[in-house]
Amino acid sequence: MFPPFPSYVLGLLLVLGSTTTVIVNGTASHSIPSTLFGLMYESGDGGLYGELLQNRAFQQVQPRTATSLLAWHPVNGAALAVIADPKPLSAALPNSLQLTVPVGTSGQAGVGNEGYWGINVNSSWTYTASFFYRFPSTLPSSHVNAHVSLISASGTVFATQSAPLSLTSSWTQLSLSLKPSHSAPSILNNFTVTVDAASGTTINFALFSLFPPTFKNQKNGMRIDIAEALLELNPSFFRFPGGNNLGQTAAQRWQWNATVGPLTARPGRIGDWGYANTDGLGLLEYLTWIESMGMQNIMAVWSGYSLDTLSLPEDELAPYIEQAREQIEFAIGSTTTKGGALRASLGRPQPFKLDYVEVGNEDFFAANTYPYRWKDFVGNLSAAYPDIRFIATSDAWDPLLNPTPQSYDVHVYQTPSWFIDNAFYYDSFERNGTTYFEGEYAAISTNASDIFGVPADGRLLWSTMESASSEAAFMTGLERNSDIVFAASYAPLLATPNLVTFDAGQVVRSTSYYTQKLFSVNRGEVYLPSTLPAVGGAVAWSVTQKNSPKQFIIKIANAGSEPAALSFLLPSAVKSTGTAQVLTGPKNMSNTIDSPNGIAPQTAHISTGSTTNYTAPAYSVSVLIVSAA
Ligand SMILES: *[C@@H]1O[C@H](CO)[C@@H](O)[C@H](O)[C@H]1NC(C)=O
Ligand SMILES: *[C@@H]1O[C@H](CO)[C@@H](O)[C@H](O)[C@H]1NC(C)=O
Ligand SMILES: *[C@@H]1O[C@H](CO)[C@@H](O)[C@H](O)[C@H]1NC(C)=O
Ligand SMILES: *[C@@H]1O[C@H](CO)[C@@H](O)[C@H](O)[C@H]1NC(C)=O
Ligand SMILES: *[C@@H]1O[C@H](CO)[C@@H](O)[C@H](O)[C@H]1NC(C)=O
Ligand SMILES: *[C@@H]1O[C@H](CO)[C@@H](O)[C@H](O)[C@H]1NC(C)=O
Ligand SMILES: *[C@@H]1O[C@H](CO)[C@@H](O)[C@H](O)[C@H]1NC(C)=O
Ligand SMILES: *[C@@H]1O[C@H](CO)[C@@H](O)[C@H](O)[C@H]1NC(C)=O
Ligand SMILES: *[C@@H]1O[C@H](CO)[C@@H](O)[C@H](O)[C@H]1NC(C)=O
Prior knowledge:
This protein is α+β, with helices and mostly antiparallel strands. Helix content is 16%, strand content 29%. The chain starts with 6 loop residues before the first helix and ends with a strand. One 2-acetamido-2-deoxy-beta-D-glucopyranose binds next to loops.
């Protein structure tokens, strides 16, 4: 239903000049897909995964090099070396840390770990600390006590527990709880394991671990504050394990089977950002956590092409296709399948839900080889799993793929002005059944010629109000086109200058984070067409409707330097009061590690009516909620 707006009313509004009139049509054009806003992930350890110790198991390092001791330090003159253990803890973990207490040492000696740029010592938490040890040569003549502690850089002890080590040359695990007596004032703390001076004693250590409580108390789970910040975004899906994290080279690709089972069976891998990953956050941990967050899986499989730009020839693809099939089978196979049985043996008999599988990552970089890789991967995988929607990662128009992809993943890193200019990006796309996943997007530079350049020019260190409001303009276009755009995720998710920045002790919600949150939390069920914004204009909007109770949800991006007066002519009678959630600030305003709470959305009551007037501040993202009368 559309209420009559006599021409004199429209004329009156138009003569008001600077006010833009937006007529909202009460007949929905399409439903908003339930997957529309979600998250993409391609990070390594030291963030989402809860483990606090860096280089905990000496994975993927060259023994006896300085870098093999990354994050580890001697205590009281102990001699430390990472060795290729002649009797390793497991085939997957060949290295151990050999500690020798020099002859003549008095007091305790041992080893400390600095964590991932610090360790958060919180007196509300009970930590679980563990490690494996063995005496590789002569057993000590009397028992040796180990002391496990959390201490500050200057030596203040927050928690310590002691236990005798068994005098054995076989690997033995010691596990104990640490409860700090008080919280540390800074994150520059260490985890230490020391032994009463047993002058001349040598001990081998392997697979250390220090865990705080995790999100929903999941075993081997996620860091609470980061997971909660992500949950607050109301995300509908999680794209994993990458992204670039799928593989730097074929040999270093992410392999699901190396990430499941006991931690002692996981070799870890050099991730795509150059450092080793424990793979403690493995396929089962991903699936379990994603489900507990209420998200759907968009799971990627490696497709024969890596960041080193090498593609496998077609006649070498078969084993990789089989590995991708097994990866899917582990997630959703019944317990009568090999993968499903393995999953059940690890405590999860019920299959997970998996509707989307992405074939590769940014394979537009290998457009010449994608046709045969796509054909062979999707040909085989869709025969085995006909209900899964396979997502292509090349450009929709080039190369031609067979079978015709049902969906494409589109990526864009650009300037704020690009995002403003491309609020209509999808409007001209053919409506022919093909759907799109805007899988990575962010305004990362104010300088079009250095999108991937160094920060010195335009590259943003932090998302700003300018970048966040321009992304919002683009997102109004995603909502308008959500008949064909079924999912969208900002990228990158974690670290600097990404959606969520963190250090060992805090999480910073960026301006872009709040844009994502405003869009994701305030979703409608259907899209209501409205007067289109000006192409290339700094002000853009989209209107959706929630059905019960009936509400109009109006999102307004103003990525320009002037306030914008708008008048929305709504299609039915509404209540006289509504709310406006507004994120706004100076053009270059950011939340940073040093100033994490500079800017956040504010909610205010506003007068609403069948003509609802609103002035969007310069550099702002606003969501107006207007309830039907
Ligand atoms: C509202 O949308 C419907 C369905 O697309 C269309 O038939 C109608 O003409 C529109 N009304 C106005 C005033 O644009
Ligand atoms: C504690 O960590 C700091 C870095 O934060 C490091 O310089 C120091 O050597 C560490 N000490 C121990 C005993 O691990
Ligand atoms: C300490 O733990 C409590 C309880 O989980 C939490 O509310 C608080 O934010 C934590 N503090 C830090 C600095 O992580
Ligand atoms: C994973 O499976 C592949 C074969 O698909 C095999 O080559 C590799 O060794 C396995 N990795 C582990 C750690 O089991
Ligand atoms: C399955 O993959 C193999 C190996 O690349 C290929 O020869 C075959 O054509 C593929 N099957 C289908 C149905 O696409
Ligand atoms: C739909 O149109 C796009 C763009 O023209 C094209 O790339 C895609 O293959 C088409 N999809 C189908 C199912 O024909
Ligand atoms: C934009 O980046 C280019 C390439 O790095 C640089 O030469 C130019 O000076 C930059 N322009 C501005 C305005 O920073
Ligand atoms: C933001 O811009 C203002 C005015 O140009 C300037 O004074 C301020 O230093 C800038 N702040 C940041 C964080 O760049
Ligand atoms: C919005 O502005 C118009 C024109 O000035 C006015 O008629 C209308 O009552 C205003 N709406 C509200 C809810 O104040």
